[in-house]
Structures are given as structure tokens and as C-alpha cells.
Write a structure and sequence with these properties.
Layout (H helix, E strand, L loop, with lengths): L1 E3 L4 H33 L7 H38 L2 E3 L23
Antiparallel strand pairs: 1-2
Length: 114
């Protein structure tokens, strides 16, 4: 068993920022669709109803990404703080097998004495 004692706060924050930004990209077309449908269904004279949904859909991935970055940084800090007292995640690692692994340990040849 291997134990993760601490994590790189910035690496967790960057990964979470990208993941949440991608989630924002997935939901953006849904907001555009419902916003445009809502603007067509309105019987009043509100010319900018659809523009707000499009603007929100454009800024949503950015906002999600920033919030993911911030929550990832806070989560990484909390993990590092708690892991000192309780211990970290326990991981069981298994060596890779297959064509990419050498059948024997690769040891560099000794250097000749001059």
C-alpha cells in the first residue's frame, strides 16, 4: 500500500479548473437553447431576452473554470491539512504488464575506468 501524504495544491487547482470549465462547455448549449426558446415564447416586447442567455452561456465555462480552480485549491489545502493528522488516501499500485514493460530490470552498463 502507498499513502498519498500531500497533494500539489496548484496542480489540483489547475486540473479542477479545466474539468469544471469543460462541464461549463457541456451545459452552455442547453442554456442557449432554453434562452432562445424563452425569448421566442414571450409575447412582450423584450428584444434583449435571448442575448442574456447567450451572454451567460459564453461566460459560464469561464465562471465554472474559475470556481473549479478556487475550489480545487481550497480542497487541496484542506486535504494536506487533514492528511497530516488522519493520514492520506491508501492506494494499492500494480506494476504494468505488457509490451511496454521490459522483461528484466534495465541497468545501465558500468562506465569504463580511465
Amino acid at each position: 500500500m502507498h499513502i498519498v501524504k500531500s497533494v500539489g495544491v496548484m496542480s489540483v487547482a489547475k486540473i479542477m479548473g479545466v474539468i469544471y470549465g469543460c462541464i461549463g462547455l457541456l451545459f452552455a448549449p442547453i442554456f442557449i437553447l432554453f434562452g432562445l426558446l424563452g425569448s421566442f415564447a414571450d409575447k412582450g416586447n423584450i428584444p434583449f431576452a435571448g442575448i442574456f442567455s447567450v451572454a451567460f452561456a459564453i461566460f459560464m465555462p469561464i465562471t465554472y473554470g474559475v470556481m473549479g480552480f478556487i475550489s480545487g485549491a481550497i480542497g487541496g489545502l484542506i486535504y494536506n491539512f487533514v492528511a497530516k493528522w488522519i493520514g492520506g488516501f491508501e492506494l494499492e499500485l500494480e506494476p504494468r504488464t505488457g509490451a511496454l514493460v521490459a522483461p528484466y530490470p534495465i541497468i545501465p552498463p558500468p562506465t569504463p575506468a580511465i
